[in-house]
Every structure is written in C-alpha cells, then in structure tokens.
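Exercise: predict the fold of this chain.
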Amino acid sequence: MRTLYKIWLPFLALGSTPSFAAETFTVPFTTPDGAVTSGKYDGKVLVTVSGGGQSNGSSFNDAFYENNPEPFHWPDYYQLTFGTQTLAPFNPSQDAVNFMPGGLPAYNSNNTYSFLLDTGTTTPSQLHFGVSDGSFVDNGGGYTITVASVSDILAGAIVPVADGPKMKATFQPKFDLTLDEVASMLGYTGFNWQQTVTQMDSPDKGGISETVPFLDPIEGGYPWQSNVHGYPFYYDENNTSEPGYNLQDAVNPEGTVLGFFDEPTNPCYGAITSLALACGGQQTNGYTYFTTDLVGVNADGTPGAKLFEFSWKSDFASVFKTGSKYWGTGGVVFSGSDFDGDIESSSGGAVLISQRLLIGGVPEPASWEMMLGGFGLLGASIRRDRKRAALA
C-alpha cells in the first residue's frame, strides 16, 4: 500500500550500533596455529586482516604479499593460513586464498584486506588462523584479524522509522559490503521487501475481496493500480511495473542501500467531516496494521527466508481541494505529499510498533524512540498520481 513513486533513499542511519561487535584478535607469526576464534562460524564470513611481519628471513610480508623489495605473492608460503582444525607447518593447502571466493586480492600498500572467506563447513566451528611457513623460531610480527558473521553484518543495518504519515526503512549492509555481496553470502541473488496487511479497522477496504492477512500489493495489483506486478514481493523484481514500483527504483546507484517507502491513507480514519461521504458516514478511530519483512530472493525468483521484520500501523487520513472539488483517497488507495491541489485537512499518521532481526537470534530494539538519535533524514517525495474519489 504505497504511493506510485518512491525514492531509493528515504533516510540513512547515522552512528547505528550492532547488537554485538565482530570478533577481533591478533595472530603472531611465531606458531603455525596463531589464533583461534572464541566464537563459532559456518558458511561464509567477512574477514579483515591488517599488519604483517617477518616469516621469510628479514623480508616483510602481509597477509598475501612479501615486499622484497617489490610486492610479490608466493604461490605457497609466507601468507595468511586458515582452517577449522589446528594448523600445521609445511601445508600450503591451508593458505587462506584457497578459501576465498573472490580469489587473491590486489596488493594494498596499507597492508589491509577485507574479503569473504568460505569456512567450508555447515557446522558452526571455531576458526584457526596463522602464517604459512615451515620454521617459526626466527619469525616476528603478526596479523590483526576481524571476523564478522552474517548476523554482525545485518545487526543494526536495517533501520525503519515512522515520519509523519510515511513509513520508511533502509537496509545498508555493514563493513562497506554491497547488497549483492551479502546476498551471495546467504545464497541469494538479491533482496526485496515483503509486506503483509495484518488488520484493517476501516469499513472501507477499497473494493478488494482479500481477507486479512494478505500480501501488499495483492496479486495482479489493486483495481486502481493494475500495472503493478511486485507480488509476492513489495517491489517488482522484473522491473515491469509503472515507475516507482520496480526494485531498481529502491536501490541506490552504488548497490549498497535498499530503501522502503509507504504512505497509506484511508478516509474512514479520524473525524474529518469532508471525508465522511467516502466512508458512508462510517468513520472509525482504528488503524491499518502492517508487517514488513526484508527477504532474500532465491535463484528461481521466489522469496527466501525472512531476515528482518518490523510491524507498524497507520490511521492517516487526508482530504485536499482542487478548484471547488474536495477529494479523498478511498479504501486502501494512497496519497502523497505532492499532488495537484492543496491539503485541506489531515489527521493521524504512521507508528512503528516493533522490529526484530530474524537471522542469528540477534534482537533489535523494539521501540522506534530508541533509534531516533541515530537517524538523519535525506530525500523527498516525488510527484505522484493516484485514483481519487470525488467527495463533492
């Protein structure tokens, strides 16, 4: 239930903090099995490694390159090693690059690298890191490593906020990852939203026959929005809908932020006298309730697991005037903040009820008031058209 046009970036979260921090530790060069994580991980993880030392004589090497005097990658030794068991000397099969889907990274003069590492296990296990070498008694230095799980990447990365009559959200993966990179970690081709109308207190449901709960938008689009093909997602994966309803409209050009925007309105809420005609005089003080989920998109185009969920409600009602005519949106039709005419009166708005992270068991703050300190508003609504019901 939304306006016809949306902006890809309703707002950004500033200074948001994950529910728990990624794990950071040091890996000395003086032993084959330099360090072991305290946490257990499976699947793909994000690794950031910095620093280095001397594992080949007096030459300096970082995680992948030795400076002697120019950066050089050895095909077997003097580099970062990884395993889910205790690491041994003289074993190039343990070189971390063998477990990196992206392959060997380009040399970085600051000796810091961030990459996805495939643990190769579906059973949560402690991860071992070291340096590839045969003799360790003459070595010096070490790495500083940060390991982040998918939960680390998602915790605090999805931020919903109610802004007057509008509900907005952004998903911006942490650690400077793109949406595609995180989707790949989870085995998906991308992300989308899935919204469910869970309750409607209004006596006017806009002429639709669906019984709550139902997905929004409904299959085939609403009667006043037949050219909307997002179902079973919120945004159209195939980008064949009218502008503003396509997934490409909700993703920023860099592919790092997925936005969400909705502004439902119903003339039966509140007590605006000029809207009573659209409701047959049956105005109510109730709400329409929504549950909105961030979901993965499977390779076959079907919805994957629900990753994050927020619940909200709206009792927004508005009436505006063009010439001598008063107009209101009927049932589940939507209004925007910029249209042909001036708002004559309005009441109500959107309210965020709860939010939670559904992957990795990491709870999110349940109240939007707790998050307001980290929000910055960016962007504005774009002109939109929608079906109107004449009131007089």
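Check your answer against the key: Residues 11-17+156-390 form one domain.
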